Structures are given as structure tokens and as C-alpha cells.
Amino acid sequence: MPDRTEDVIDQLHALMHLFKDRMRQALNVDGGGLGPTEARALRFFSHHPGSTQQDLVAHSGRDKAQITRIVQQLMERELLAREPDPNDGRRFNLQLTKKGLALQEAMHTQRKKLAADMLRDLSKDERQQLGGLLERMRESAEGSSTAASERIASR
Amino acid sequence: MPDRTEDVIDQLHALMHLFKDRMRQALNVDGGGLGPTEARALRFFSHHPGSTQQDLVAHSGRDKAQITRIVQQLMERELLAREPDPNDGRRFNLQLTKKGLALQEAMHTQRKKLAADMLRDLSKDERQQLGGLLERMRESAEGSSTAASERIASR
DNA sequence: TGAAATGGTTGATACAATCAACCAATATTG
DNA sequence: CAATATTGGTTGATTGTATCAACCATTTCA
């Protein structure tokens, strides 16, 4: 009897690469040349409007400096805007601009389309099943986090 | 009723990040400081002994030059060795050295351990199920490859 | 008030990845 | 067979992403 344990990981790998490739491809057309990191940052601030750079640092695990630069780029493109926090002179609260919102919306749609396409051969029940299994897998996997890898996966 | 379609993708993302993080972490201890790219290259030549660099280029989709450099590094560390192809003066056939095999074996074990750990809360049946679902997902996803993304996911 | 912590910026630097140009060997074709 | 194209591989230049360290301004805490 086959083990499957490793197969599962391989499948995950393969699937993610497929998805990433297509997403990147879609971004180049649809996302005005946003890199994947920028896209994720935009996504983050769209899900957590008014957050600070520091929040993204904590959430993504990337370096402060890098986040600063990404945010700068997004602001230069006028996809993101910031205003000083009235209560704390160090913080800046970030949120998407109109333009940013529109782009984010477009990317979200693309993302959904891609996801739907990859799942098109599974029945509704099977999707539910798959989602459930993956979720349980993730939960138990996260549970056993080693001290050094305490950062949150980037959604 | 919830859609789940996007959830599934998110779960995939999260899982891959978890796995990658831990694998990287494990590599730093166990893999003598191999980067993920080098580790994958080693893995490839262990699965396809006697292949050429070009084979890896085709399989991984990365740039020729980069592959050359990775292979060079692996050879400097004496994990990989090459000999000229007797039938074609351009080719070099590559295979792991003893040292390379040992390392690869150690990494393989780690990998299996990680995978097993992530799946520990699923029953045997559920693993089978999950594997099957993922495989079908991958197959149908690969089917609809767009012209520009014709490269093979890196296993 | 002085010391430490926090949010953010900047400069130097490392590294992976890609592109373009190139060499040597082989295949193709007229 | 000679000229040409293709293939496997290498090298140099360049870009993009990430990290580290030092730093400034503001806030918090002792």
C-alpha cells in the first residue's frame, strides 16, 4: 500500500506553483505590473484598512525596511495613501486610494476566477471536503510551530 | 452558504508557507546551509541521475545561467559530480556524489518527517481522500495551462 | 527627567534571477 | 563537403528582493 504522505506534499507544491504562475501572469496583464509582494501588501491593507506598516511587518514576517519600500512604491503609484495617526505621532494609518481599491477589486476577481478554474472538476461536496481537510491539516500543522518560525503565513 | 472556493486557495497558500518555513529551518540545521533552490536541484539529480543541466532547466523553468551557478556551487561542495557525455561533447552528465547522496537522504527523511507531522491529525482514509482530491485538482488545473505558462512545476 | 521601546527611514550589502553575448560541439541543409 | 543553425554550457552586467545596521522622532516607562 502506498504511503501518500509525501504525495500530498508534492501535490501541494505543484498546485501552488501552478496557481502562482497563473496569478503572476494575470497580474502582469491586469495588475499594472505589480509584483507579487506588492500585490500581497495591497491585499493586506484592503483587508485591514487603517493599519500601519508595522502591522504588515508583523503579519508578513518580512523586514521593516522592505515593507517601507513596498509601501513607498504603492504610494508613488497612488494605490495607497497614508495619514498621520492623530493619537501617535510615529504611526501612519494606511488605506487604499480609489485607484487602489479598483485595482484590488480587479485582482480579487482574477484570483477568484483562477481558483474557480482550478476547482472546476470537483463537485460542491468535494470542495467542502477538500476545504475541511486542508483546514484541519493547517490547524494541526500550525499547532506544532517551532519557536523560531513564529511568523504568520502571508494569507 | 459559503463559497469555499477561495478558502481552498488560501489554505493551500498557508500550508505551503508553513511547510516551506519549516523545511528551510530544517535545511539550515540539517542541510549544511543549502538554499532551497540548491536543495531542489540536488533532489532533481537524485531522482534523475545522469541528467544534464539542460534537463533541469527544462524541468524547473529557471534560467540557464542560474542553473549553471547552482550546479557549480553544488560541485564545489562536492555534493554533485559531472562527467562529459561520451556521445556528445557538449553535454555533461551529472550525478550525486556519496556526500550528496547522504545529504539528499537526510533531507528526504526530514521532508517525510515534516510531511507526516503536518498530516498527523488525519486518518489514513482521510489522507487517501485528500491525496486523491488534490491530484484531481492538479490534473484539471494543468489541463488548462495557458500558452505562456508552459513550464513544469518544480515537484 | 532620563532611559528604553516603538514606528519608520535610509544606506550598504547579499543574493537570486534574468538577459545578452559568447564559445565549442553537434546537426542540418544546399 | 562547406556554410549555417542549433544546442549545451559559461560569463558579465544588471535588476529586484531581502536583510542588517544605524539612525531619527516620538512615545512610554521607571
From TrEMBL, chains A, B:
- Which residue windows are coiled coil? none
**Extent of Low complexity compositional bias:** 142-155
Q: Where is this region: Disordered?
A: 130-155
One Pfam annotation reads MarR_2
Enumerate the spans annotated as HTH marR-type domain: 5-139
Instruction: Supply the InterPro entries for this chain.
Output: HTH_MarR-typ (IPR000835), MarR/SlyA-like (IPR039422), WH-like_DNA-bd_sf (IPR036388), WH_DNA-bd_sf (IPR036390)
What is the official name of this protein in its record? MarR family transcriptional regulator
